[in-house]
């Protein structure tokens, strides 16, 4: 069985963690399935090869941007653009080079995380709809794994998402706001369900010595998206808030660990700027920057922290699912929903709050007794989510195994 993992990525470490999680679960239950992704221009071949992923072919990344825009709008153009690649590529070459013809895909599993809503260009949703409808016409399943959806106020985005849902077999929102956004588009539909983020129960990563095992540290995770998508709320206050939080962390005797949770150059630059501003303000507990190519190692490092203050969604998931309290500085409803699901809605910090509010939260998490109280809540909530997550996987495998038998 050939399964396409759609929306997968390596640059964003949260996206890669979703990819690694779904690969582990699929291979555990369906070891003979071939898993494939559509290569992008940012990810080296070696990263896909490490995970033994095949490649979807023909790949529209071969084409120039103008042609790709045309393919979104025209089935005939898609056929004509892809035909030469199919005619000139012998079938044995597909196996030799790890290629799977798009028309030989038996199921699509979407792990986009957050790509469908008014915050993104409608073409992104339309591309997913085209892929989904292509499989749906052949009677193949399309599964949207737990992710954030909406809002869908823009007509083109809403129309494209409606087409995507029409072709879907299962649709999983990862929290109530996303569930309501989808239901507002498609109504009360038996295909629509809710389940927690799949990375809450991600596999254990390799044992890596980070050099900080014996230290007491708290984590800061910057996110460049706070400077564009979150700018309307945060203005120029975001970086100064992180600096203030880092200084307060050090005052409690913990080293501020600045974690880069994305391969984007913007996150790296923001982390370096945070370090440059924070380092002169701290006398003893000097800050340091930590990153790693493997997101499972990043999760392991976060799990060793006293607490986290940050904005990368899956860094917060890594913390909370490991029983580590985290203060979320966010720009979308997914942050509030995550904190609420884990029973700690008070650990949200918004742009409308002030710096003193954040420092009070840092003080609370630095208190041993309060920190332990929150850890107990997080562990209890995580175990309560496990049943939901396993029920979701049961439904996913029921659909995939049925398709494999047909």
List its traits.
six-stranded parallel beta sheet; alpha/beta; Polysaccharide pyruvyl transferase; Rossmann fold; 14 strands; 14% strand; transferase activity; 2 domains; 406 residues; Polysacch_pyruvyl_Trfase; transferase
Describe the structure.
With 406 residues, the chain is of the alpha/beta class. The chain has two domains: 2-202 and 385-405, Rossmann fold, CATH 3.40.50.2000; 217-383, Rossmann fold (3-Layer(aba) Sandwich). The chain is 49% helix and 14% strand. The protein is built from 16 helices and 14 strands. The strands form two sheets. It has an eight-stranded parallel β-sheet with strand order 4-3-2-1-5-6-7-8, with helices on both faces. It has a six-stranded parallel β-sheet with strand order 11-10-9-12-13-14, with helices on both faces. α3 (65-73) crosses α4 (75-88), α6 packs parallel to α7 and α10 (238-251) runs parallel beside α15 (355-366). The relative contact order is 0.12.
CATH class of the largest domain: Alpha Beta
Overall average pLDDT: 91
CATH topology of the largest domain: Rossmann fold
* Shape designation: globular
* Count of discrete domains: 2
What helical percentage do the residues reach?
Answer: 40-55%
Q: Give the tally of β-strands.
A: 14
Strands across the major sheet, in which order?
A: 4-3-2-1-5-6-7-8
Strand content: 5-15%
Secondary structure class reads alpha/beta
Provide a short characterization of the protein structure.
The protein has 406 residues and is α/β, with parallel strands linked by helices. It has helices at 13-29, 45-50, 65-73, 75-88, 91-96, 122-136, 155-167, 176-186, 231-234, 238-251, 265-278, 295-303, 313-321, 333-341, 355-366, 368-405; strands spanning 2-6, 34-37, 54-57, 99-101, 107-110, 142-147, 170-173, 192-194, 217-221, 255-259, 288-290, 308-310, 326-329, 348-349.
């Amino acid at each position: 069985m050939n399964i396409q993992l759609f929306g997968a990525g390596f640059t964003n470490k949260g996206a890669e963690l979703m990819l690694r999680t779904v690969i582990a679960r699929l291979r555990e239950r369906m070891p003979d399935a071939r898993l494939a992704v559509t290569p992008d221009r940012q990810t080296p071949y070696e990263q896909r090869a490490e995970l033994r992923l095949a490649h979807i072919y023909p790949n529209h990344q071969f084409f120039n941007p103008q042609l790709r825009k045309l393919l979104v709008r025209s089935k005939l153009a898609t056929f004509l653009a892809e035909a030469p690649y199919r005619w000139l590529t012998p079938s044995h070459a597909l196996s030799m080079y790890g290629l799977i013809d798009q028309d030989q895909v038996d199921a699509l599993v979407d792990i986009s995380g957050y790509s469908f809503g008014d915050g993104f260009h409608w073409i992104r949703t339309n591309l997913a709809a085209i892929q989904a409808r292509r499989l749906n016409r052949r009677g193949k399943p399309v599964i949207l794994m737990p992710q954030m959806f909406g809002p869908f106020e823009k007509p083109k985005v809403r129309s494209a998402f409606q087409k995507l849902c029409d072709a879907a077999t299962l649709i999983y929102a990862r929290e109530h706001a996303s569930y309501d956004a989808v239901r507002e588009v498609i109504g009360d539909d038996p295909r629509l369900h809710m389940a927690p983020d799949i990375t809450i129960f991600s596999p254990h990563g390799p044992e890596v010595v980070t050099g900080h095992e014996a230290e007491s540290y708290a984590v800061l995770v910057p996110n460049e998206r706070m400077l564009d998508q979150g700018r309307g709320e945060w203005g120029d206050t975001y970086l100064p808030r992180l600096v203030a939080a880092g200084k307060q962390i050090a005052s409690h005797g913990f080293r501020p660990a600045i974690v880069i949770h994305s391969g984007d150059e913007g996150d790296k630059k923001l982390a370096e700027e945070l370090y440059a501003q924070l380092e002169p303000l701290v006398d003893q507990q000097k800050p340091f920057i930590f990153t790693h190519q493997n997101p499972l190692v990043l999760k392991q490092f976060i799990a060793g922290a006293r607490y986290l203050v940050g904005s990368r969604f899956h860094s917060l998931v890594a913390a909370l699912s490991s029983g580590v309290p985290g203060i979320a500085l966010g720009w979308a409803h997914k942050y509030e929903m995550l904190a609420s699901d884990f029973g700690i809605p008070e650990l949200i910090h918004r742009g409308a709050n002030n710096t003193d509010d954040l420092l009070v939260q840092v003080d609370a998490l630095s208190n041993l007794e309060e920190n332990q109280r929150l850890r107990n809540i997080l562990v209890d909530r995580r175990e309560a989510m496990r049943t939901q997550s396993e029920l979701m996987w049961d439904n996913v495998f029921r659909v995939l195994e049925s398709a494999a038998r047909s």
